[in-house]
Amino acid sequence: MTITTPALPLDDLVSGRTAAEAEHTPAWTTLKTAATQLQQIQAQDGSVPDAADHPRAVALVDDIVRAVSALTPLFPHDDRYLAASIVDFVRWRDGGFGVPDFLDSLQAFQPQEHRVDGMRHLVVFPMYTQNGSRDRHVEALLVEVIWPEFIARLETEYSNRLFVSLRLIDFTPGYDTNSAVLFPETVAMREVPTFTWGAIFQDREAARYRRVTRAAAEITKLDLPDAAARMLDDQALTEQTFVMWDIIHDRTHMRGDLPFDPFMIKQRMPFFLYSLEELRCDLTAFRECVSLQARLSARDDLDEAERAMLEHAGLVQYAVIFDRIFRFAITGSRVRNYDGLGGQLLFAWLHQRRVLHWTDTSLAFDWDEVPAAVVALADAIDDLYWRSIDRPKTAHWLAAYDLVRSVVTPHPASVWARGLSDEILAGAPKGFTDAVLDDEFPLSMFFEALEKKMRPVIASTEGIRGTD
Length: 468
Prior knowledge:
Layout: H1 10-14, H2 26-39, H3 54-71, H4 79-94, H5 103-108, E1 120-129, E2 133-145, H6 149-154, E3 163-171, E4 181-182, E5 198-201, H7 202-220, H8 226-232, H9 235-252, H10 271-297, H11 304-327, H12 338-352, E6 356-359, E7 362-365, H13 370-388, H14 393-405, H15 415-418, H16 422-426, H17 429-434, H18 445-460
Parallel strand pairs: 3-5
Antiparallel strand pairs: 1-2, 2-3, 4-5, 6-7
């Protein structure tokens, strides 16, 4: 294995910059350009199958290696990972550009060990991007940790050592999309290890929340509470709100009275079960923030971090409601859109309990009554899960469907709504899943009209970053 010697002195590629200025260095420009050009000759699995492209691939990988070598001194906390990344790239090059295997460098990358506000990472892997591209192409990212003091304090109560909160600084085309996560399982590798971290780009989440909520509030004539309105003008405030929301959401997936595998990893089952699981985690974050707000409000001796917790606990509640009903419900296709259904379910639940009102073509909330109504939905899902432990799997599916259909109206042609045949009920679980329509729970008239008006706004958030 031969590592190419850089054509230019490494110092010339970083120009005396620091990690905080990495995106302005010739090294980063070289890396980003080489990775982007390499994507054009990679197959979906990450290989470069055409031998005629190999000389070009060699030159591009050499550029990547040169750039990563130059940038490594700017990221001493990642030096082991970056050294392993160079080895993986060289092995891939010298092996003839088959399906890439970056397991070694992935295992060396441990961002959860460096949750320090403002710390930066250079990330380079062949990977697909969730809600972006299914191609496992080489992507390069510069990212920055978002970890304010109040989150560090909160994490002692809501322990989640695998959670990493990031801000996008610059990126290759795979992240010029709707993708707002960096997950290790997306990386090309020979075997699947035990994963030790998962990252969310809170700046992207916050930026699209602010844009979508502002537009939706205007369209629906919603008079936003002062605290909620303040988020729309403050990116940093909204980023930190999403960090608080997601750190509680993420840990909830494996907590509570759960079905054996609540996240349904690698299982094929009706999409509305995913809807309930994601909504359960969001509503747990909501519930915990209601509780935290009550506890902290009762004290008059709060320190600075606790005052920040109190402020953001209230903001999380607005964020959960508005992101779920304004963005989730109308984003993406209507093909098994489980996040969309979760938004529809929350909206309908609040409307049917008369704490959300659509009157005289204006939207309004009885904010004093909203927390109890949201917690009641969380209780209903928790009760479904608690009862599931004593039920066969398909019986749990049927009970879950009954919960959803009690709130959101199914498609008139639904065989689930009419009642599954004895043949399906006596058969394998696959028959249950196959009987679910792609759009089992169509948009209501409210959301159908809102989606048409919001379509350009939703589309404009693709590739958004916190500075937009």
